[in-house]
Amino acid sequence: MGNYPEHELLQDGQASSAGTSLSPAEIEALVAERFPRKAYCTVEDWLILHVDEPAESLARVRATGLEPMFMYSHCVIYDGHGRFPPGGWVRSTLCKSFDGVCLFETRNTIYVLVGQGREMKASLKTIFGLC
Questions:
Q1: What percentage of the chain reaches a pLDDT higher than 90?
Q2: What sections of the chain are H helices per DSSP?
Q3: What count of other Cβ atoms lies within 10 Å of the Cβ of residue 73?
Q4: 47 vs 11, 29, 64, 65, CA distance in Å?
Q5: Dihedral of the alpha carbons of 99, 111, 120, 10, in degrees to the nearest 10
Q6: Model's pTM, two decimal places?
Q7: Residue 41 burial by CB count (10 A; 0-12/13-18/19+): exposed, middle or buried?
Q8: Distance (Å, rounded) from C-alpha 77 to C-alpha 2?
């Protein structure tokens, strides 16, 4: 994994067994079946970031139908809408759903997590400081 700007991430990171090893064609078919009207972006070297904030802040996020989680990746493989260049980084908006394996949904995009990544808790300051 790459170098992170905040020591907090290095201390709290835990290996995750999530991620897929499907081929690009299999990924395209999976997303088309599960989320037929959404753009998707495949990423590797990824982090699932669980927001570490007071319970009342987390409850406000959940009240909007979202989960207090973000996805960050050091390496975009493919973006169906061309927003993120291959090899670039991306940080998602708040999570709408996560299947616990490889499909991380936001309001506008499905992020397909390729290979093994990490999950950790992080403050919003740390999350928004990643680039």
A1: 76
A2: 7-12, 24-34, 55-63, 124-129
A3: 26
A4: 14, 24, 23, 22
A5: 150
A6: 0.86
A7: buried
A8: 16
